Amino acid sequence: MSLEVAIEKNYTQLVGQIGNLLSIGREKAACSVNSILVQTYWEIGRYIVEFEQNGNEKAEYGTALFERLSKDLTIAYGKGFGRSNLLYMRKLYLTFQISGTLSHKLTWSHYYEILKADSELEIGFYTKQTEKEKWSVRELKRQMKSMLFHRLALSTDKEDVLRLASEGHEIEQPEDLIKDPFVLEFLNIPEQYQYLESDLEERLISNLQQFLLELGKGFAFIGRQYRMSIGGKHFRVDLLFYHRILKCFVLIDLKRGEIDHQDVGQMNLYLNYFKKEEATEGDNEPVGIILGAYKNHILVEYATDSIENKILLAKYQLYLPNKKQLEYALNRIIEK
Questions:
Q1: Which structural domain, as residue segments, surrounds residue 87?
Q2: pLDDT averaged over consecutive 10-residue blocks of the chain (336 residues)?
Q3: What distance in Å separates the CA atoms of residue 54 and residue 37, rounded to the nearest whole number?
Q4: Which of 224, 213, 295 shows the shortest CA–CA distance to 253?
Q5: d(C-alpha 314, C-alpha 304), whole Å
Q6: By C-alpha distance, which of 285, 280, 135 is closest to 213?
Q7: 261 domain-assigned
Q8: How far is C-alpha 78 from the geometric centre of its chain's CA atoms?
Q9: Cα separation of 125 and 109, whole Å?
Q10: What pLDDT score was predicted for residue 158?
């Protein structure tokens, strides 16, 4: 290697090292700014609450407090002090009365969305889950709109609902992969449209990032129409993933209508093949998910009884769930 080539190589490494350092520095600076901003807004919320508790709000300002405060702060300090912003600063303090419970990984924009939730249970869940999953504000909005907390909570009991709210959603066993139901509104399939299973698969692949967000943390996409040769015949599973937390393959078959007992038998065949032919040292046993528009609970019980493989049957829906119905069902669990 000539001297000039060596110098150029060292120079390229220098540029790369400086670039990495700048990226890390800017990321830390952004986190620091966000943390300071959230803490500042928390303090503003505390000042407002203390002002109200001293009786000043009722005596002097009445319901016009936030309108006047918004106007005066905007004139003095510029944008960022709209009435809704001030109301959420107040709610931030009332919800997280110990400032140390605030997450330094979440921005004010995250908190602004999270505080729109109707209950402390939801707020706790979305705070924890946003931090764990590193959701962008856009991803957080989608999860809240699809009622993720309610869908996860409905498959548990009261104790698990409280744990979910305080710790977030932990993937510890295959059953934790299931939501009730999966919501695929991002596919934008019109009502009354007579779609085929191949249409559903095509749209899921075209919206893979959104589908991975709906599936949850840990899924890595491997392929579609994954081919298996068994006994001289060829079979294909619709979608194949690997779950890095559970350390296993996850096979997903899509059904346009109701899940049938034959679908369970077919998935059982696939899982037996994967255990013997695809799994390597360190892999746990594969998991099969049959995703259909409907499932017959009695049929499911008999079809899966005494099957050793882990086969999960789940519903999907193409439109956002009914918020009132989910809230009613969750409230019944909590009341019990």
A1: 3-116
A2: 76 78 77 87 91 64 77 91 92 89 90 94 95 94 95 87 91 92 93 86 95 95 95 95 97 92 93 95 96 82 84 92 88 82
A3: 26
A4: 224
A5: 13
A6: 135
A7: yes
A8: 34
A9: 17
A10: 85
Same domain, 110 and 205: no
Question: What is the reported pLDDT for 215?
Answer: 96
181: preceding bond cis by omega (within 30 degrees): yes
The predicted pLDDT at position 138 comes to: 96
pLDDT, position 13:
84
**Nearest CA among 150, 140, 132 for reference residue 116:** 140
Domains in the chain: how many in total? 2
- Say if 20 falls within a structural domain: yes
Q: Provide the CATH number for the domain around residue 262.
A: 3.40.1350.10
For residues 198 and 78, membership in a common domain is answered with no
Which of these three, 96, 116, 136, is where a domain ends?
116
Residues 283/321, Cβ–Cβ less than 8 Å: no
The reported pLDDT for the residue numbered 25 is 78
In 3-state terms, what secondary structure has residue 253?
Answer: strand
Residue 9 forms part of a structural domain = yes
Of 143, 90, 94, the closest CA to residue 114 belongs to 143
Helical packing angle, 65-77 and 3-53, nearest 10°? 140
Instruction: Report the distance separating Cα 153 and Cα 330, nearest Å.
Output: 7
Residues 188 and 303 in one domain: yes
Residue 146 within any structural domain of the chain: no
Q: Which amino acid is at 3?
A: L
> What pLDDT, on a 0 to 100 scale, did the predictor assign at position 257?
87
The answer to whether the CB of 175 falls within 8 A of the CB of 314 is: no
Query: What backbone phi and psi angles, to 5 degrees, belong to 95?
Result: -80, -40
Q: How far apart are CA 67 and CA 56, in angstroms?
A: 15
DSSP line for 133-167? HT--HHHHHHHHHTTHHHHHHTTS-HHHHHHHHHH
Secondary structure class of 129 (helix, strand, coil): helix
Helix residue ranges per DSSP H, the chain = 3-53, 56, 65-77, 83-95, 108-114, 120-133, 137-145, 148-153, 158-167, 197-206, 208-215, 261-273, 297-304, 323-335
